[in-house]
Protein: D-inositol 3-phosphate glycosyltransferase
Organism: Curtobacterium pusillum
Amino acid sequence: MSVSSTSYRNRVLILGLNFAPESTGIAPYTTGLAEELAKRGMEVRAITGFPHYPQWRFSSPKPPLWRESFESGVRVVRRRHLLPKRPDGLWRALSEISFGLSSVFARFGKPDVVVLVSPALISSAIGLLKVRLLTRRPTAVWVQDLYTLGLRELGEGRVGIAERAIGALERWCLRSADAVIVIHDRFRATVVEELGVAPEKVMVVRNWSHLEEAEPVDRSTARAELGWAETDFIVLHAGNMGVKQGLENVVEAARLATASGSSLRFVLLGDGNQREHLSVLAAEVPSLTMIGSLPDGEFRKALASADALLVNERSGVGGMAVPSKLTSYFSTGLPVIAATDSGSVTESEVLLAAAGPVVPAGDPQALVDAALALAQNPIAARAMGASGSQFRSTRLTARSSFDRFTQLLRGLATGRGPSSTTESGTD
């Protein structure tokens, strides 16, 4: 049967470390894509790990070496891998290597096209090597974070052997793929200009908002359940508590709010490898509360019950990632405060959406001042929230992103290269 036949069901293999039921980071996008492709009539197999993020511990004490299940139309193959308590540096690399080696022993089947999700870069490279040697099918690498930029921005200028090796691996992986999918135009510029990937191979598909428009909630009841007073102005940061978030800045902002006696309350919702460290710093700061990861419904309720939402980045983090939390934030209709470097991708997204104020990274007083300004001007705050919601509904729709993925993957499966279009477009 011809691959181009309308009766043929394209077979897609997705290889990525994170998948549902993980609810933050990359997992909702990998899962959403897999399920949507299945709905569109494709046969989808996903090879992934057991749930572990952002807590960096398995959800069950000792998962089996592997497990296969059928979830929402997707055949999901889970492989166990090394899971360090502190996922940074060498340990994180070893974790990715172990997943990569474990995943290549899983049955790939006979896919028409393979999608590798990076991060995890090293396991994607191992998977690409298997595809090149054995499967020999068209391959797309879906870039959510750029390791090259991350090492530069978090390494404070130090470039050692390990950093150069990771940079060389990322260049090889992206240049060797048949298509590279990036989530922002700034990523495309880096991939083409710095990593030397052919422009015609690179396609921009924005991450979509994986939360529906926020449903009305009983704010009084929800806030009471969370311990938030009606007179508090809640600034909520949701998601991973890692190094690149630089959340010490939020602890210090809360300390300033406590000292001034203001009604500001900062909330850190989620988990991550810096949570314990932050808990120690915040031990005697009553204006800061930490909440562990919540089930999806409770998470949405907490977001909707805040007064402002915060994306906070460590100084020096400018282009390595587009915070996935922004797509969720924009669905709430609440203003967004961005504490980030001037010229960063995060700054450009928040300003483009006109969703809220931007303050310098690592400046807790500026963060406090921005939050107080929103508290004192609720009309302006509501206008910013409405603007973010409008941006989501016109620029971050799932349908436009899925349409472009479908076009790309079917094109690769039938021997056509990726489109050179660089913007995911609007509906």
User: Anything to note?
Assistant: The first helix runs from residue 27 to 39. The chain has 15 helices and 14 strands. The radius of gyration is 21 Å. The domain at 219-394 is CATH 3.40.50.2000 (Rossmann fold).
